[in-house]
Amino acid sequence: MLLDVQDITTYYGASQALLGVEFRMGEGEVVALMGRNGMGKSTTIKSICNLVPPKTGRIFFGGKGTERMAPYKVARLGVGLVPEGRRCFPNLSVHENLVAAARPGKWTLDKVNALFPRLQERHAQMAKSLSGGEQQMLAIGRALMTNPRLLILDEATEGLAPVIRQDIWRAIRQLKAEGLSILVVDKTLSELLPVADRCVILENGRSVWTGVPAELTAQVQDRYLGV
Ligand SMILES: Nc1ncnc2c1ncn2[C@@H]1O[C@H](COP(=O)(O)OP(=O)(O)OP(=O)(O)O)[C@@H](O)[C@H]1O
User: Fold this and answer.
1) Is 35 in the pocket of ligand 1 (CB under 6 A)?
2) What whole-number distance in Å separates Cα of residue 86 and Cα of residue 64?
3) What is the pTM of this model?
4) Where does the ABC transporter domain start and stop, copy by copy (predicted)?
5) Fold of 3-224
């Protein structure tokens, strides 16, 4: 078991955002975390990273309980987060952004450059002058440079041009093929479902459905994803 989220509840001040989320991920699995807007997907991710620590429940990463662990320590255990809004260092170059994140492992500068040739072509450019899609690639590249055991992608393709989205989905498929464990939140089901091994659906801060993509019938989609 790589990640074991056990019945967590999470608050923002007095307001409760998660009322009981549980799911597990095995090594090498791609899990799609789904649900309508505001149902708790980002909060679940922030809870896993201890950016907003859960109040009750437990989270184990690689068998280790992460409660009271500082976010950087959770990252060091091997959780690589690409947060919503693709944060990079704006005044560092592409190259500097990537090497600043580096930790030893199979993901090197060369490998990231091969995954995203657009980044290689722009290695000396300041991150702030990249397009939104290129910044997203840089954010993913940075996370990979930490050589994570689990990559978390929160809306990594949102608001990007179609060609760039294709590049990012191609990269995600390649990462899966290489055996990387990925927890992914994304609204494009036509891309997400073929790559997912399993889906976890949240509703009002609770995990309410889990299954393989083939079980995600139109009925289930209507009920929980309501488009
Ligand atoms: N910083 C915050 N302070 C207070 N409440 C918050 C904060 N962030 C999120 N919430 C609330 O927590 C609940 C879950 O939000 P969350 O962002 O986790 O949902 P989500 O499923 O990721 O939605 P979206 O797809 O819209 O990002 C919502 O009711 C939201 O209003």
Assistant:
1) yes
2) 28
3) 0.96
4) 3-227
5) Rossmann fold (3.40.50)
